[in-house]
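pinned: reference chain
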Amino acid sequence: MRMSLRGRIVAGTVAAIILAVAGLGLTVGVLVGRDLRGSLDQTLHDRAIDIVRLSVSTPALLTAPGALASPTGGTEVDVEVFDRHGKVIASSPALGGRRLPGDALVAQALASGTGGYATGTFAGAPIRMYAAPVADVGGAAAGGAVLAGSSLGAVTNTLGHVRAVIALSAIAAAVIGGLLAALVAGRGLRPLRRLTVAAGAIEHTGDASQRLPQVGSPREIAELTGTLNGMLAALEHSRATERRFLADASHELRTPLTSLRGNAAYLARHGEDPEVLAAIEADAVRVGQLVDDLLALERAEAQEAPRERVDLAALAREGARRAGAELDGCHAAVVWGDRAALVGALGNLLDNARLHGPPGGPISVRLDVDAPWARLSVSDAGPGLAPEQVEAAFRRFWRGPESGTTPGSGLGLAIVRATATAHRGRVEVDGAQFTLVLPLAHDVAAEVAASC
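pinned: its structure tokens
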């Protein structure tokens, strides 16, 4: 079973706290241990030096009762005094005849005349020792050495207490941090749970007009809410567009189909009539053209990014020739595209110019290169579109104010825009000039002067 987001936050918080406290504990343990051992070494050094001074200044006191006993209230330090031959001549009363395990350390001090530290075991416990040489000046200890030793038990116990305190602190911090993380995560995820419930309700009803409840914080969830509501608005708009499209398509089909039924009924009653047959044929052509345009529009809108190299110059020449249009200008241009779709888009622009331009008026085709774009334009001698009509002209089934008398399905320009969008381009309108702007397949700036 996968852990919830809240569980992950709590687990991550607890793990982070434990790791942080463990790292801190390790560092503190090392530092405290070093300081405690350094302090003990200093104590052993100072005690040994005091005994060395005593043996030099008043050697007779070395054997006096209590002279080598540890100071009251300080760290307990046991001392042994050796002569130049390594024989013990005095020791602390606490040793009770026992010997510190520092023979090698004493031998080193006697041989080299320098002090040194060592760690050993005494009475089953670790012990730290320091040996200091005695100056060869009078007394039985002259030329000998002083060995001071103290148990490491206090250091070990202190480090154990420190580690225990750190471990308990880690557990307490992890528990408190986990509870706080659970509380904060619960409060932070509460808006997300409300969004989940609201989204489930929208899914259940299928009503895209509903919106998710707005939240003020946290900021990330507020941004997510805004994004989801924007998606719902886009979906609602898409559905409204589909409904309007279905209504418009039904309206466009109803007229020729009604005419077809009426003419068919007339033929059934009165027999063959050339005018009625011509009307039936015209209505059938209109329905067929409408269906073809609907299919072309659907293919253009669903088309993926095309990867076929298309020679726009050849396409412009062929389109102008078929439509009887003038080829005003033509430059070499190659684009990635769907040739059939681009031929259809150019044909729709030419049909649009023929329908809306003056009867028998000139129609021109022009291909320009403005790197990195190719511009394929079709224009007629008519007044063209007013600026306020440009956007409406690309809507489905729009045929202008004179739509009742204008032939065609009203889908031509919609197909042109869908084709341009599928080719990562656009359509520009300037009066009676419609321009299909497409990205070039390569930089042909050097070929601009090459006429086609």
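why pinned: The radius of gyration is 50 Å. The chain has three domains: 5-159, 207-302, 305-447.
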